[in-house]
Design goal:
Blueprint (H helix, E strand, L loop, with lengths): L3 E7 L4 E9 L4 H12 L5 E12 L1 H16 L3 E5 L3 H9 L8 E2 L2 H6 L22 H6 L1
Parallel strand pairs: 2-3, 3-4, 4-5
Antiparallel strand pairs: 1-2
């Protein structure tokens, strides 16, 4: 099983779920349990702190998306905070970055600081496609 530790902090206006490790298929049950419990709270704002998450896969992303949908249906919100560049890239590739508000820090998420929402494009270099033109192949 992938290593994942979770810490829950219940504040007056939100529940902060701090994750440490990898949000991947092997840790999905841990994440699902913590998110399900957070959905039971009367203040239905959930901040998922991703600052200490080294990696996330499609299972982890899907778990966040489903929970965000349930929270929205109940009049609340699930937001993300503090992801590293690799996690931001995965969130963007899965189409989640545009669907779930993602803030630079937990405090920005708690304050709903619109200026701290991550929207910039990836800074990772794009993969270079194999040249199609035979002339380009010879010179490459």
């Amino acid at each position: 099983m992938a290593a994942l530790t979770l810490a829950v902090e219940r504040l007056a206006a939100a529940t902060v779920l701090s994750c440490h490790g990898a949000l991947v298929a092997a840790s999905a049950m841990q994440l699902e349990t913590a998110l399900s419990q957070a959905l039971l709270r009367p203040e239905l704002r959930i901040v998922v702190d991703l600052a200490a998450v080294a990696a996330i896969d499609c299972t982890g992303v899907m778990m966040l998306r489903v929970t965000a949908g349930i929270a929205a249906e109940q009049g609340g919100a699930l937001v993300l905070a503090g992801p590293n560049a690799q996690v931001v890239h995965t969130l963007r590739e899965c189409g989640t970055l545009s669907g779930i508000a993602t803030y630079t820090t937990v405090q920005a998420a708690l304050d709903d600081d619109q200026g701290a929402i991550i929207t910039a494009p990836d800074t990772a270099p794009a993969a270079t496609a194999w040249p199609i033109n035979r002339t380009e192949r010879r010179s490459a």
